[in-house]
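Justification of computing resources. Each target in the renewal requires a structure prediction run like the one illustrated here; the chain below, 181 residues long, is used simply to show the kind of job we budget for.
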Amino acid sequence: MKSYFQIAVAVICLFSCKPENKPVAASVSQAWQSQLDSLLPLLGHRNWVIIADKAFPLQSSPGMVYINTDATVPEVASYTIQQLNKGTHVSPILYLDKELSFVPGTEGYRDTLQGIFKGQSVQTLLHDSVFAKMDKTAGLFKVVVLKTNTTVAYSSVFINLDCKYWSAAKEQQLREVMKGK
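Resulting structure tokens:
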């Protein structure tokens, strides 16, 4: 009887143990491309996608979604821009850190990014200004961080998503019409 009791206690303990919560960061075992592909249709105007260098911090904000790519910034940027361009609902507004232009030895890296972004407007802002811009909306909207293995200072790419089918000019026209009514 005593051994049945010990077995029962062991079984209860074994099945009552709750597994530890999984971290917010997604694992590399599932391809990062498929993880991004599943998120892109859900993202919209005012969401952000950050293609981050290796030193980008894991933040505690609940709106941050991390995907570990184990790839370089140019590889991830190329795929991400292709996917965004294929979509019908959002278009990228691209930001790079102004400091990148002053980091020695980054000419080739910058040229590679310019090739990936050809035909698209790329704005450069001071690093803190990009974060301030992102932080304005990050409290309300999801930010997807594609963490890379790139170890170049100020090499992250910040993408603010905008509505592809409704421009600022159309919005202004709408507001003008509404004023008259």
